[in-house]
Write a structure and sequence with these properties.
- It is a single chain.
- This protein is α+β, with helices and mostly antiparallel strands and 175 residues long.
- 19% of the residues lie in helices and 40% in strands.
- It is built from 5 helices and 10 strands.
- The strands form 2 sheets. A 6-stranded antiparallel sheet has the order 7-6-5-4-9-10. Strands 1, 2, 3 and 8 form a 4-stranded antiparallel sheet that branches.
- A hairpin with a 4-residue loop joins strand 5 and strand 6 (84-89).
- It is elongated.
- It starts with a strand and ends with a helix.
Length: 175
């Protein structure tokens, strides 16, 4: 309950129009927000969701080398005075009349620049995670709710295949 499941919509591209060259991630997760989280949000507690990306190069002689990593955080809050939901990220804030209207902005991410254009080389693997950032909850909630499944909205790490076109474009960008 509450565990997001990724779909085949996860992908990496090399360029996005209007953006500096780099690796961009697009992903979609499907989950239902557990009732205790909705109740806590209605009592004024903001929920923070985080997408975490890691690009690593495997090495036979040592631990894998981290080539690039990035985290994207989205805040979901409820304002009891206006009875509206707010989704905030990267300095932007959007307001919605219902939770159903706000959740797609948390479940989907597009055009997220995660690494430089030359970082995807042969032997590198990309991994994406998504979940509720319990470290940003108030301290009493972190202690009392850490073992309950109702407060766990976390995906398993998912490997994203890096297309050969991305790797060849990354190699060309490096030259």
């Amino acid at each position: 309950m509450g565990c997001p499941s990724g779909t085949d919509g996860r992908k990496i591209t090399i360029d996005e129009p209007g953006e500096p060259p780099g690796l961009f991630v697009e992903a979609h997760y499907e989950f239902d927000l557990p009732t205790p989280l909705i109740n806590a949000m209605h009592r004024g507690i903001a929920l923070y969701f985080a997408y975490s990306f890691e690009l690593t190069k495997s090495r036979w002689y040592w631990l894998d080398k981290e080539v690039a990593s990035s985290t994207f955080t989205i805040r979901l809050a409820f304002n009891p005075l206006t009875r509206r939901y707010a989704v905030s990220y990267s300095g932007y804030s959007l307001n919605f009349d219902s939770l159903e209207e706000a959740l797609p902005y948390i479940k989907n991410i597009r055009r997220w620049r995660v690494a430089g254009a030359g970082d995807a080389k042969p032997g590198t693997t990309a991994e994406l995670r998504f979940g509720l950032d319990v470290g940003k909850l108030p301290k009493p909630m972190q202690v009392t709710n850490q073992d309950t499944d109702d407060w766990n909205v976390v995906s398993d790490p998912a490997e994203i295949p890096i297309p050969t076109t991305v790797m060849s474009a990354a190699a060309a960008a490096e030259e």
